[in-house]
Design goal:
187 residues, alpha+beta, OB fold (Dihydrolipoamide Acetyltransferase, E2P), 2 domains, five-stranded mixed beta barrel, two-stranded antiparallel sheet, globular
């Protein structure tokens, strides 16, 4: 092979490498510019996090997920949404709305589940205890801040986001959002 061809192939390789990287980088930037953050990979989540696919919404504070091809039930830490399916009680005020909101935001989505060592791994019913993040948004906090759930501290054990959730509930209550709205829960 002559030097001329060798230089040609080296130049071609460099050009493909540079332009290929440019196009991949442009595609990633365009995702961000239109609001679609790339879904993290397993290598991108922290030790106390895992990726999961939401398969079903049980109610406003409980979901079913697939983690590494195994289905599990997740109870959201720090919130208590009004009941819709508890056989011991009737459907509570704003329970249907909370379930509808959870379904609209989470159903079928890939989310990041974050554990909290202060709350333990599972509750007394065997459900995983987790915060749910979608594209960096703390869904648990969203439910409180929009008035779909109350802040809930289990057994007086503060959790990682206690202050944030308490403040979010205070603001929702003052702004009369969701279940705090005038007349929302009059029976």
């Amino acid at each position: 092979m002559s030097r001329k061809f060798l230089y040609f192939y080296i130049l071609l390789f460099v050009a493909l490498f540079v332009f290929g990287g440019f196009f991949v980088g442009s595609r990633e930037k365009s995702k961000i510019n239109i609001g679609l953050a790339p879904t993290p990979t397993i290598a991108q989540v922290n030790a106390n996090e895992s990726l999961a696919k939401v398969t079903r919404i049980v109610d406003g504070d409980t979901i079913k997920v697939l983690i590494q091809d195994k289905e599990d039930t997740v109870r959201l830490i720090g919130i208590d949404a009004p009941e819709t399916i508890d056989p011991r009680t009737s459907v509570q005020c704003f329970g249907k709305e909370a379930s509808i909101k959870a379904k609209a935001v989470l159903d079928g989505k890939t989310v990041v589940l974050e554990s909290d060592s202060t709350q333990g791994e599972r509750d007394k019913y065997g459900r995983l205890l987790r915060y749910v993040f979608l594209d960096g948004l703390n869904f648990n906090k969203l439910m409180v801040s929009e008035g779909y759930a109350h802040e809930y501290t289990y057994q007086s054990k503060p959790y990682k986001y206690t202050e944030e959730f308490i403040n979010a509930q205070k603001q929702a209550r003052e702004s009369k959002k969701g279940l705090w709205a005038d007349g929302a829960c009059n029976s």
